[in-house]
């Protein structure tokens, strides 16, 4: 999958959107998405509430991860990243979808593209941490094959073998 490759999709409401791999060129629009994101610090304190830490966090994701963005009418409305550990041949997976675009299938499409990329990179597994009561996210992760691997009270780790 070449960076910049575009995947045209249709959400559950029948509206078209695009998913594509991105790099630093997407930084301004991703920063806008996270500046408008609600609620901030929604999951494990992310995205950061304060402007400067949030902007540094977005830049670090773009510079160190494999990133994918869902675009709707030229606006970033969803973002996921693979944070690779080449020594362990695995990666952490994170995803955020803008509030007004949740429950439309965009998270599922972003996740599918990221999983495909992880396989292309030869990773053996993906993992993530999810808050115990984030049922919407857990439903998505289970749908694509992630499984719980611990019994945390506030947060749980899920793993997907590739």
Question: Quick gist of this model?
Answer:
The chain has about 160 residues and is α+β, with helices and mostly antiparallel strands.
How would you write the strand order of the largest sheet?
1-2-3-4-5-6-8-7
Strand residue content = 25-35%
Shape: globular
Number of helices: 4
- At CATH level 2, the architecture is 3-Layer(aba) Sandwich
Averaging pLDDT over every residue, what do you get?
Answer: 93
Contiguous uncertain segments of 5+ residues: none
| Assembly category | single chain
Written as H for each helix and E for each strand, in order along the chain, the element string is EEHHEEEHEHEE
The biggest sheet amounts to: 8 strands, mixed
Residues in helices, as a percent range: 25-40%
Q: Per CATH, what is the topology?
A: Aminopeptidase
Q: What's the alpha carbon Rg, rounded to whole Å?
A: 15 Å
Distance between the termini: 17 Å
What is the level 1 CATH name? Alpha Beta
- Secondary-structure-derived class: alpha+beta
How many E strands?
8
CATH superfamily grouping? Gcn5-related N-acetyltransferase (GNAT)
